[in-house]
Specification:
3 domains; 20 strands; four-stranded mixed sheet; Uridine Diphospho-n-acetylenolpyruvylglucosamine Reductase, domain 2; alpha+beta; five-stranded antiparallel sheet; Uridine Diphospho-n-acetylenolpyruvylglucosamine Reductase, domain 3; 27% strand
């Protein structure tokens, strides 16, 4: 049984030595020195303002774009999925969304409300907070295309709203968060639509994703697409489709996915990422940059 610190004035769950593998889509990695799942936004603000838990703070949603190394993560991992998950329509085609809300649920909620423009979010296997942090996208659209304003939490536990102009946003890149800050929510602006049509669009996009992307334990796309090309095409052209290191394998269905085929270690996945980078660069002269965030310590 993991130790639980009970004397701190928070309502959420605080654990030490908490395993993280089950909280990531690759199902690998060591424990968090400390794991905090806040009860709500007020609880999170109180935790940060009081400086509870060891630093640094690492923010985690659905764990779909991260590789946690086998040695685990020092400091405190703050888990937003299941806590900052509110989605509320507020009029004028605007929707307020918490950073812990799964993108797929945001897409479905907007469709039910007869709002158009968010259907592509159904194809993003993470939370809105993670999507904001990296400008996630698919099917030709990106999350910051929808953003009217974002809510940030600073290192003293204070909340503020900022306009997109405060950030430099590019392909899978967002700059402008100050040290110690994290996204806790956003207001999205959408267009009027028709609920049935939006649900049909979501089904169409998910069918396209199912036809082209593998199922199984992966992080989603591993590498950013280089300008004018696709990482998956380059990896396949380098002859790496199906290549494995231990139980970590480049997908036969889409080469920009690496699968944990059962019992892989994070070290095997990371080694395969580096092998793909080096091989594509050696054979094709293109340096692929990882889209996935690699966290923590080697074992």
């Amino acid at each position: 049984m993991m130790a639980v610190e009970r004397h701190v004035p928070v309502r959420g769950e605080l654990r030490f030595g908490a395993p993280l593998a089950g909280l990531t889509s690759w199902r690998v990695g060591g424990p968090a020195e400390c794991l905090f799942r806040p009860a709500d936004l007020e609880d999170l603000c109180r935790f940060v303002a009081a400086g509870m838990g060891p630093r640094p703070y690492t923010w985690l949603g659905l764990g779909s774009n991260v590789l946690v190394r086998d040695g685990g993560v020092r400091g405190t991992v703050i888990l937003l999925h299941g806590t900052l998950g509110g989605i509320q329509t507020i009029g004028g085609g605007r929707v307020r969304v918490g950073a812990g809300a799964p993108c797929a649920r945001v897409a479905r909620t907007c469709a039910r409300a007869g709002l158009s423009g968010a259907s592509f979010l159904a194809g993003i296997p993470g939370t809105l907070g993670g999507a904001l942090a990296m400008n996630a996208g698919c099917f030709g659209a990106e999350v910051w295309d929808l953003v009217e304003s974002v809510q940030v939490l600073d290192g003293q536990g204070r909340l503020a709203w900022r306009a997109p102009a405060a950030f430099e946003v590019g392909y899978r890149r967002v700059r402008g968060l100050r040290p110690g800050e994290a996204f806790t929510g956003a207001v999205l602006r959408l267009r009027p639509g028709e609920a049935a049509a939006e649900h049909a669009r979501i089904r169409e996009l998910l069918a396209r994703r199912g036809a082209t992307q593998p199922t199984g334990a992966s992080c989603g796309s591993v590498f950013r697409n280089p300008p004018g090309d696709h990482a998956g095409r380059l990896i396949e052209a380098a002859g790496l489709k199906g290549f494995c290191l231990g139980a970590a394998c480049v997908s036969e269905k889409h080469a920009n996915f690496i699968l944990n085929t059962g019992g892989a270690r994070a070290a095997e996945i990371e080694a395969l990422i580096r092998h793909v980078q080096h091989t594509v660069e050696d054979r094709l002269g293109v340096r692929l940059e990882p889209e996935v965030r690699i966290l923590g310590e080697t074992a």
